[in-house]
Automatic annotation (TrEMBL):
InterPro entries: 6-PGluconate_DH-like_C_sf (IPR008927), NAD(P)-bd_dom_sf (IPR036291), P5C_Rdtase_cat_N (IPR028939), P5CR-like_CS (IPR053790), P5CR_dimer (IPR029036), Pyrroline-COOH_reductase (IPR000304)
Residues of the Pyrroline-5-carboxylate reductase catalytic N-terminal domain: 6-101
Main localization (coarse): cytoplasm
PANTHER family reported for this sequence: PYRROLINE-5-CARBOXYLATE REDUCTASE, PYRROLINE-5-CARBOXYLATE REDUCTASE 3
Substrates-to-products reaction catalysed: L-proline + NAD(+) = (S)-1-pyrroline-5-carboxylate + NADH + 2 H(+); L-proline + NADP(+) = (S)-1-pyrroline-5-carboxylate + NADPH + 2 H(+)
Statement: the UniProt record of this protein carries the keyword Cytoplasm: yes
Native species: Stieleria maiorica
Name under which the protein is recorded: Pyrroline-5-carboxylate reductase
GO biological process terms held by the UniProt record: L-proline biosynthetic process
Amino acid sequence: MKKANVVVVGGGQMGRALVGGMLASGFAAADQLTIIDPNPECRQWWAQQHPDVATGEQVRDHAAGTDVFLLAVKPYLVPDVAAGIAKTVDRPTLVVSIAAGVPLKTLCDHAGHQRVIRVMPNTPSLVGAGASAFCVAAGVTDEDCQWIRQALAGVGTVAQVAENQMDAVTGLSGSGPAYICLVIEALADGGVLAGLPRPLAMTLAAQTVLGTAKMVMETGRHPGELKDAVASPGGTTIAALKVLEEKGLRAALINAVETSARRSGELG
Ligand SMILES: NC(=O)C1=CN([C@@H]2O[C@H](COP(=O)(O)OP(=O)(O)OC[C@H]3O[C@@H](n4cnc5c(N)ncnc54)[C@H](O)[C@@H]3O)[C@@H](O)[C@H]2O)C=CC1
Ligand SMILES: O=C(O)[C@@H]1CCC=N1
């Protein structure tokens, strides 16, 4: 199903990140994609940024010949959207939902079949550095599984998980880009406070996060060990680490992931 025709329902932040990443990776061509969004400003954004990608207001006008419906609307809208698709198509077409918290059972009940995949992607998919996990319902074929793996591998890393791990994935990597952006912004503020011009502070902050993540992944060394390698005895880093421990950075991040995961469960 490599050349699948995909209708993306919801052309907002995450739809843009995923489709942008799929186009950039070459996984999908513009003429295989249609974006459905009732918001005219959103369709205008697509027309300007991706003029070769078709847009429309209603799924029913674009459902013919569709191989995959990718649901990228807010979680509370997903049941109605899935039910609308079920009324429009007369065969069990693959439905992929990226909505936080919405369980496979709800998706299957409204889609009217079990050829359904639940995905939790994240926004760095836009630049090919996403982190996604997915789980599948009983009607999903090996070919469907391969399709979603290839689609997500084209925009970052991908893992298949049990459905009961999806809320945890949401709390960590789904919401995670927001935590890290906060960290980058705050690090840059610190640099400005210490006397750096804002653009340089932002570049140093972002590159430090990027480089550290790359080092963790490429060396396979424990982050604690890599942290120790930065902290000289009696030096600057250990003085700063003491502040972060006193201010509870670890606990704050652990609680953030746990709270997002719990919220994901509530959304369903
Ligand atoms: N933003 C993120 O970082 C992530 C979001 N998600 C999930 O992605 C989904 C979308 O989130 P965002 O893109 O952030 O929201 P968003 O608000 O940016 O985009 C949603 C889009 O859906 C459109 N829409 C509303 N009703 C519609 C309908 N009936 N048919 C078609 N389109 C309709 C809206 O006009 C809007 O453009 C959510 O379910 C969220 O849980 C998952 C992972 C990460
Ligand atoms: O905030 C949210 O609900 C979505 C799900 C994961 C990231 N953003």
